[in-house]
Structures are given as structure tokens and as C-alpha cells.
């Protein structure tokens, strides 16, 4: 049985690694940033809920925006 993804506060690197589990933490972070920066709509949505470009932590509202855009990891 698959565990449901939990919307909560995540470290940016932590969430990146959930989306890219088979690469290093550094690579996962870079790839996740590329995904985010590819969508101005997503960036605007994230900024509306308080996201800053170099944030180390993602609030539940920010995580909800990301998961809504990319689907759960």
C-alpha cells in the first residue's frame, strides 16, 4: 500500500530529493530549481504564498503549490 504524500513544512533539499530520489542531494536540488524556474506561472503562485528564490524551507502552502503543479513525488 502506497503512503499518501503529506503536505507539511519541508526543507527545499528534502522535497527535491523526494522528486529525484536516485541522484545526489546537490543534483536533486539543481534539477528541482530547473523545474521551478521553467514555469513563470508556478513562480508567481509561489511568490503569492511567500516564497523567496533562495528559501531553505518551504511552508505547507508553498508545498501545496508545488505538488499541485508537479503532482506528488
What does this molecule look like?
This protein is mostly helical and 73 residues long. It has one domain (19-70). It has helices at residues 12-19, 25-37, 40-48, 60-70, and strands spanning 10-11, 57-58. A two-stranded antiparallel sheet has the order 1-2. The protein is globular, with a radius of gyration of 12 Å.
List the topology elements:
Blueprint (H helix, E strand, L loop, with lengths): L9 E2 H8 L5 H13 L2 H9 L8 E2 L1 H11 L3
Antiparallel strand pairs: 1-2
Helix pairs in contact: 1-2
Specify the structural class.
mainly alpha
State the strand order across the main sheet: 1-2
Q: Quaternary state, please?
A: single chain
The major sheet is characterized as: 2 strands, antiparallel
Q: Strand tally, please?
A: 2
Domain count, please report it: 1
Strand content: 5-15%
The termini sit apart by 16 Å
Shape: globular
- Mean pLDDT figure: 94
Rg (CA only): 12 Å
Helical proportion?
55-70%
- What is the ordering of alpha helices and beta strands? EHHHEH
Our count of helices gives: 4
Instruction: Detail the poorly predicted runs.
Output: none
Task: Record keyword descriptors for this entry.
mainly alpha; 4 helices; 73 residues; 56% helix; two-stranded antiparallel ribbon; globular
